């Protein structure tokens, strides 16, 4: 069930909100960085001014290719720069905590790729720093800001499908052995869980409420990298989620939410659905099926960036649709799933 705190930020009492533009730096010069620059540029209140890389040469090359005025080969210098208001962290999972903490402590707003960090206590620690420093912090959970998912939230709140009782969702694909290191390297937080199931678990927590129980079975390497799994979550009042994820085979990126009077299907791709299919009624009457399409803006990040700008320029330190507490709860669930997978593996040894 959508959290009651999920309301749009109130910007009515903040006349400065539209007066300023936020100056962004992107951290990490990988593929996600280019997508971020492109979509940030579609937000009227954003100015992308800098790239930060571990290599000054890569930073300079990226800045030149993207037409950015500043290139940092040193994260300390970026954090000390008065010419940057906000950072977008697009580096592998296990690096997020230290990078986000340093930027927050330096007084920068932080939007960080998913998963925000690898543990719930780390997320809460970052949330405390952001609140103390009066700066914004959010995991870049673009799925929650996609027009399709916002529409699903509205439909559920309006009672269109009745009480949501069950979510089935999947996301996975065979990642080649020479594919991105973040999938295969335990030191970078590798595996399917933190990279892919972070979406399906977020959706389950969003629509089904607090978690009660976890069971999971799958394949986990000795170094802890999870390759594939089937997960069952039991939420409050007996609501259930069944989730599949993998980095070794294809799991179509879609799902459906079943309620007492109907269901909402999330079409591909689950993290930014192109459409919702809303089915109402029960046999023997033929069901009514309505399909709602949602064109994608840019690479799909634009609605999230716009919402983040509104929140920051309104002086908020988090966004009500995806506060740090929600991220921490999802991380807690991921940690429990991981523990269940390891127990399941060890029991079968
Ligand atoms: N939302 C989405 O659709 C989506 C899609 C893909 C990825 N992601 C997320 O984006 C993040 C990055 O994923 P990716 O596949 O782009 O990762 P990646 O290619 O391994 O790394 C991205 C960049 O981070 C920097 N980097 C690499 N290793 C690092 C390390 N050990 N310490 C600090 N910086 C390092 C590198 O830039 P420099 O060499 O310039 O420092 C690299 O180009 C992940 O958290 C992932 O979940 C999200």
UniProtKB/TrEMBL annotation:
Annotated ranges, domain Gfo/Idh/MocA-like oxidoreductase N-terminal: 22-139
Lineage top rank: taxon: Bacteria
Signal peptide (UniProt feature, chain positions): none
InterPro entries listed in its UniProt record: Gfo/Idh/MocA-like_OxRdtase_N (IPR000683), Gfo/Idh/MocA_domain (IPR050984), GFO_IDH_MocA-like_dom (IPR055170), NAD(P)-bd_dom_sf (IPR036291)
Annotated keywords: Oxidoreductase
Span of domain GFO/IDH/MocA-like oxidoreductase: 149-264
Family statement drawn from the similarity comment of this UniProt entry: Belongs to the Gfo/Idh/MocA family.
Name listed for the protein in its UniProt record: Gfo/Idh/MocA family oxidoreductase
Organism name: Pseudaquabacterium rugosum
């Amino acid at each position: 069930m959508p959290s009651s705190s999920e309301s749009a930020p109130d910007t009515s009492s903040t006349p400065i909100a539209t007066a300023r533009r936020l100056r962004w730096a992107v951290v990490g010069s990988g593929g996600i960085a280019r997508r971020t620059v492109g979509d940030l540029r579609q937000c009227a209140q954003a100015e992308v001014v800098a790239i930060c890389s571990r290599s000054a040469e890569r930073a300079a090359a990226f800045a030149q290719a993207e037409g950015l005025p500043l290139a940092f080969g040193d994260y300390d210098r970026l954090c000390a720069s008065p010419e940057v208001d906000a950072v977008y962290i697009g580096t592998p999972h296990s690096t997020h905590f230290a990078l986000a903490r340093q930027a927050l402590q330096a007084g920068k707003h932080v939007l960080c790729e998913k998963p925000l960090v690898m543990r719930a206590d780390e997320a809460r620690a970052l949330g405390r720093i952001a609140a103390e420093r009066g700066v914004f912090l959010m995991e870049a959970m673009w799925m929650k800001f996609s027009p399709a998912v916002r529409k699903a939230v509205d439909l559920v709140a309006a009672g269109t499908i009745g009480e949501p009782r069950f979510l089935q969702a999947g996301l996975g694909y065979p990642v080649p052995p020479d594919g991105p290191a973040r999938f295969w390297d335990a030191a970078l937080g590798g595996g399917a869980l933190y990279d892919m199931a972070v979406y399906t678990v977020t959706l389950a927590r969003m629509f089904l409420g607090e978690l009660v129980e976890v069971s999971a079975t799958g394949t986990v390497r000795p170094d802890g990298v999870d390759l594939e799994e089937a997960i069952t979550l039991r939420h409050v009042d007996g609501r259930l989620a069944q989730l599949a994820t993998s980095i070794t085979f294809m799991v179509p990126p879609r799902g459906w939410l079943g309620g007492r009077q109907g269901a909402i299907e999330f079409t591909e791709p689950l993290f930014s659905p192109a459409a919702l299919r809303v089915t109402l009624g029960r046999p023997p009457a033929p069901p009514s099926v309505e399909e709602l399409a949602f064109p994608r803006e840019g690479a799909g990040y634009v609605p999230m960036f716009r919402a983040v700008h509104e929140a920051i320029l309104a002086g908020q330190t988090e966004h009500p649709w995806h506060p740090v507490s929600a991220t921490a709860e999802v991380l807690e669930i991921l940690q429990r799933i991981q523990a269940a997978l390891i127990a399941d593996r060890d029991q079968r040894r």
